[in-house]
Design a protein that fits this description.
There is one protein chain. By secondary structure, the chain is of the alpha+beta class. It has three domains: 101 residues, Orthogonal Bundle (Arc Repressor Mutant, subunit A); 107 residues; 259 residues, Bira Bifunctional Protein, Domain 2 (BirA Bifunctional Protein, domain 2), CATH 3.30.930.10. It is built from 20 helices and 19 strands. Strand 16 and strand 17 form a beta hairpin. Helix 1 packs across helix 3, helix 2 crosses helix 3 and helix 4 crosses helix 8. The longest helix has 15 residues. It starts with a strand and ends in a 5-residue tail after the last helix. Keywords: Aminoacyl-tRNA synthetase, ATP-binding, Cytoplasm, Ligase, Magnesium, Metal-binding, Nucleotide-binding, Protein biosynthesis. GO terms for molecular function: ATP binding; magnesium ion binding; phenylalanine-tRNA ligase activity; tRNA binding. It is found in: Cytoplasm.
Length: 501
């Protein structure tokens, strides 16, 4: 019998008495596992080998788990410090015990949350008591040692589950393939197996010489494993942004672009937001320690200042609050992309615009928010506005209806709200397809005269700011914005998630 070289090598190395793994054959024969696997499947098709599969589970420590293996679990350290401080006799001040334990930052919260769970003691009114009978080996600490020593099979399933929930271990599975000679394979070896000359492609020289008649062509086995290659691809959120862009361009909009770091003049002052507004403090926005912006258009600056001080029109009063040019020139990371709208409406970005006009942007904004399931420090905002005569809230609602229908969202809800730069104003809400929760997805309104007149705009402008991440949450069913955007996004999600149409 003549067989390709790799098949002969695998057949001769296989045993009739016990299975041999592909990895061991690969090491002995000095060939790639993929080549061994392909040859094994080909021999199995000929009835010369049996190929069996099993799942090998492995457990390894995460970086946090390795830290706790070296330093000790936070709750164990807290318990030991409480015992040393006499907490097994009388309550001890929590600050004293935490200081003695050496715990800092997030480790303190971890220790406190696991302290009572494990029965180490109690925490009440800022005092800690320690259970004197809770000493001994901590099962989770012992498990970390076992896993580090390669003895994960000694750890109970419940403890492994708990360590995985805490992010201290990673579990992985891989398919292990083993081969064993069949009776037909043993017979073939006894009768003799020869290496056949094998080629993987037909050349013009082989056709001309007739050599093709005497060679063995290698076969393709589409069932054989191949190494998984993870090529580059667009982030799902970027793909969603492109989808939104296609929809808005199809609705007749043109795209705006502008700086991420801009003067407070464009970010806030042009939006008729008073300089003593709480949202303009460093608690809500990120100020940059750079030289102030010098090239503000003087005529626009004067009109904006007048609007703040005196108001607009016969009945305008302004804010009667301080307004300073120095503050207007300070540079911040933009807290919203409406700063781009101010630049375009003023004519600074693209020259004077005559109605009707439609513009949009899908750019990042930055806010000093508390991170949770619906908020991040940076996010993508879908900014848009329409400039025309005699616009109304009905036009704005109709635009939203048309836009969101492109993504299968038809249950929009509107609620009146207040913005310094729009009147009337309302927020948009949509129902989450998984949780049923009503999620805020944007803010909108008709720009006030106090904003438009200083920018020399003499017609109506309706505008909105929508959250791209929240739109994606509604479309995909993601329940946490951190699952869509940020450093916690799972790599498998990035590799497999597709934009829904």
């Amino acid at each position: 019998m003549k067989l390709p070289e790799t098949q002969v090598a695998v057949l001769e190395a296989a045993s009739a008495n016990e299975p041999r793994t592909v990895e061991s054959l690969s090491e002995d024969l000095d060939r790639k596992p993929e080549s061994i696997t392909r040859a094994a499947f080909e021999l199995a098709d000929e009835g010369l080998l049996d190929v069996s599969e099993s799942i090998d589970e492995s457990v390894s420590l995460t970086e946090e788990g390795r830290t706790y293996l070296e330093d000790g679990l936070p709750e164990v350290r807290l318990y030991e410090a409480a015992i040393d401080a006499g907490g097994d006799d009388d309550p001890v001040q929590m600050g004293q015990v935490i200081g003695a334990s050496g715990l800092e930052g997030g480790a303190v919260d971890i220790a406190l949350s696991n302290f009572a769970r494990k029965g180490y003691g109690g925490i009440d009114s800022g005092e800690i008591t320690a259970n004197p009978d809770a000493g001994g080996d901590d099962p989770e600490a012992t498990a970390l040692e076992s896993i580090a020593g390669g003895d994960a099979d000694l750890v109970t399933e419940d403890t492994l589950d708990q360590l995985e929930r805490r992010g201290l271990i990673e579990r992985s599975e891989r398919t292990v393939r083993s081969v064993q000679l069949t009776d037909e394979g043993v017979t073939a070896l006894m009768e003799g197996v020869e290496v056949a000359e094998e080629v993987d492609r037909l050349t013009s020289e082989m056709l001309t010489s007739g050599e093709w008649r005497d060679v063995e062509f290698s076969e393709y086995n589409v069932a054989a494993d191949a190494p998984e290659i993870e090529g580059g691809r667009h982030h799902p959120l970027r793909s969603m942004a492109e989808r939104v862009k296609d929809v808005l361009v199809g609705m007749g909009f043109s795209e705006m672009q502008g700086p991420h770091a801009d003067a407070e003049f464009w970010i806030n002052d042009c939006l008729f937001m008073p300089q003593d507004h709480p949202a303009r403090t460093h608690w809500d926005q990120f100020g940059l320690d750079v030289p102030p912006m010098q090239d503000l258009p003087e005529d626009v600056r004067e009109r904006v200042e007048a609007a703040h001080r005196e108001g607009v029109g016969e009945d305008g009063e302004g804010y009667h609050s301080p307004w300073g040019e120095d503050m207007a020139r300070q540079i911040d990371l933009r807290g919203h992309t409406t700063s781009l709208s101010a630049r375009y409406l003023s004519g600074i970005a693209e020259g004077d615009l005559e109605p009707p006009q439609r513009f949009f942007s899908i750019e990042k904004a930055y806010r000093n928010d508390e991170i949770d399931s619906t908020h991040l420090l940076e996010f993508f905002q879908i900014e848009g506005w329409v400039m025309a005569d005699d616009l109304s809230v009905r036009d704005l609602m109709g635009t939203f209806t048309e836009f969101y229908e492109q993504f299968g969202i038809t249950d929009l809800r509107f609620k009146p709200t207040y913005n310094p730069y729009t009147e009337p104003s309302f927020e948009l809400f949509g129902e989450h397809p998984v949780t049923g929760e009503v999620v805020e997805i944007g803010n909108s309104g008709i720009f006030r005269p106090e904003m438009l007149e200083p920018l020399d705009v003499d017609c109506d402008v309706m505008a909105w700011g929508l959250a791209l991440e929240r739109l994606m949450m509604l479309v995909t069913g993601a329940e946490d914005i951190r699952d869509v955007h940020g450093t916690l996004v799972d790599l498998d999600y990035l590799r497999t998630e597709e934009v829904r149409y």
